[in-house]
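Entry for the shared binder. Reason: the reviewer on the internal report wants the predicted structure included alongside the sequence.
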Amino acid sequence: MYNLVSFSGIFVLMAFAWLFSTNRKVVNWRVIIWGCLIQLIFAVFIFAVPAGTKVFLFVNDALVKVIDVAGAGSRFVFGRLALPPGAKDEWGGESLGFIFAFQALPTIIFFSSLMGILYYAGFMPWLIGIFARTFTRLMKISGAESLCAASEIFVGIESSTAIRPYLEKMTLSEFCTVLTAGMATVASSVLAIYILILQKQFPMIAGHLVSASFLTAPAAIVMSKILLPETGKPETMGLHVKPYREKESSFIEASINGATAGMKLAVGVVTLLVAFLGLVTLADFIFAGAGTQLNGILGTGMDWSLKGLLGYVFYPFTLVIGVPPSDAVEISRLIGERVILTETKSYMDLAALIEKGALHDPRSSFLAVYALCGFAHVASLAIFVGGVSALVPSRTADLSKVGPRALLAATLATLMTAAVAGTFFTDGSILLGK
């Protein structure tokens, strides 16, 4: 029954996006139909076809192994502080527990360096090109936005540099797609963080995060084109666009540049968590005081924290994607928390909920993994609008104008991805590590 609810949720979410569209008379059915089909075909392959499941398990095991290797550098630098929970070093020293700064953040630097090498070797441009051509050919969108959306599956804000020559003449709808794809997906460099956070509670988390990243790219295009339909004439409509990139002179330079970019990203993650956790705690303190008085007057027990208030907003959406009512309150609070505190904090809280057995149905944690997999939060909006504006300052006003709409589209895209995954959920699936 819940799988049916999830399947219905795909269309409910698109209908909700249509209600807030800038032009409800312009509906690009090709984008909607092919966007949904791409997601469903990929989901069938991963969740229902035995060969696809084997690919899923291979990717999961490979990523886990790479992350284990990635920890060699941080263990050399930080010693026992970098040991994951339950691990021991060669001298018998035991882990001090999960320490985010010393275990999760260094993996960003490693993965960024690895991605730099894969770009230099030509593997990443080839892989991104396959997805870009698929989006352009099937959905008939511009080559520039297809390339950016495809790049976002693997990298973050830096993907906008791949279409730098085309930014100046982009339409508002193209800008919306670029921003939405950026906020709806996650960079490969930060996937390692989520894997480290949830691997103990969710053994197959690596494979699920990769599949979520693939599923969300077409979902982002669909939601973006519904909320802000194309009414102009994109310069690269229907054309295949090659990524713009200044290639390094050697593997070593590519590795160094990648590691440097990863270090900047790691510092950015720390900065956002420190600042936003503090600000939200302050806001909650203020809201809690006023809420206590209102609860006394109204005779209610309403949660007035930002997480609680946003949880009420996302509660119906949580039910729509197929989360059982017994867990809908907790999952909706996590989704609401992601909007203001980033997905990293939400994944940490999800791990805590699973650890203490607070969720009644394994379906709930499964859907939460997919619904939370994206940069769809306020801080990300500022990062992506600011990052793209730096490349094309003359279009800053246009980017700022479509930014909030792109954040809504990105949020709906991550929920749509969860609904697609929920359509194929089975309680005894090997994908859950059962």
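Summary line for the report: DSSP finds 16 helices and no strands in the chain.
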